[in-house]
Amino acid sequence: MQINSFIVFCNRVYYSANRICKFIDHRIFNKIVVSLLKPWLLLPIVRKNLRERYGWNSYKECVKGSYEMLEDSDGMIMHNTYAMMYIIFIFPIMIITNILVIAFGYKLKEIFVHYLGTYIIFTALLDYMFSYYFFWKGDRYLYYFSRFEKEKHQNQKVWDIMTALYSIMVAIVWFVTLINT
Fold first, then answer.
1. For residue 163, which of 14, 26, 24 has the smallest C-alpha distance?
2. Residue 50, CB half-sphere, CA atoms under 13 Å: how many?
3. Of 23, 103, 140, 166, which is least packed with CB atoms within 10 Å of its CB?
């Protein structure tokens, strides 16, 4: 029974990380990308290509279509969510490693520097196995996402804020311990 509650917790954090990435992507990143594209949309050759490919005739249609295309790109959001989950679950392991290096000195640091590539590959594989078992096996995350979407909006915001603060805190602590090693 304990493993099921841990799976629910992990999927809850995954859902919150996905909501945070959607917010960042849709509210911030897309506006930056479209503002960078606007000068290119004024070029006649680009407008001609967009007219032929998508049927956009005016500059406003090009800008609106660009926003819509970026809004529909959930694949990038899932990659960003996976990266955030890496921060949430693997950075604590790296923090413990850095603290051990600080505590035990130069000899342990020399070992980690020598095997740094192996260490990074090991943590990435560990994260992939963890994610596969808790999220992707049988598309488990889809079941939990539909369950969490039915919750109150206020409850979702609390989880989102806690997940964001935890991610920021872990990244800062990891960076500080990395500097001190």
1. 14
2. 21
3. 103
As a whole number of angstroms, the distance between CA 18 and CA 144 comes to 12
pLDDT of 166: 87
How far apart are alpha carbons 15 and 18 in whole angstroms? 5
| Site of tokens 């099921």 | 4
The tokens of 25 are what? Answer: 């992507």
The sign of the dihedral angle between the CA atoms of 54, 58, 62, 68 is negative
Three-state SS at 42: coil
CA atoms within 13 A on the CB side of 138: 5
Q: Are 25 and 80 spatial neighbours (Cβ–Cβ below 8 Å)?
A: yes
For 110-159, write each residue's pLDDT tens digit: 777 777 777 778 877 887 888 888 888 888 888 888 999 898 989 999 99
Spell out the residues 6+ positions from residue 34 whose beta carbon is closer than 8 angstroms to its own. Answer: 63, 66, 67, 70
This prediction's pTM: 0.68
The CA distance from 29 to 79, in Å, is 14
Query: Which positions of the chain have pLDDT values less than 70?
Result: 1-3, 67, 70-76, 106, 180-181
- E strand or H helix at 25: none
| Cα gap 165→30, rounded to integer Å | 23
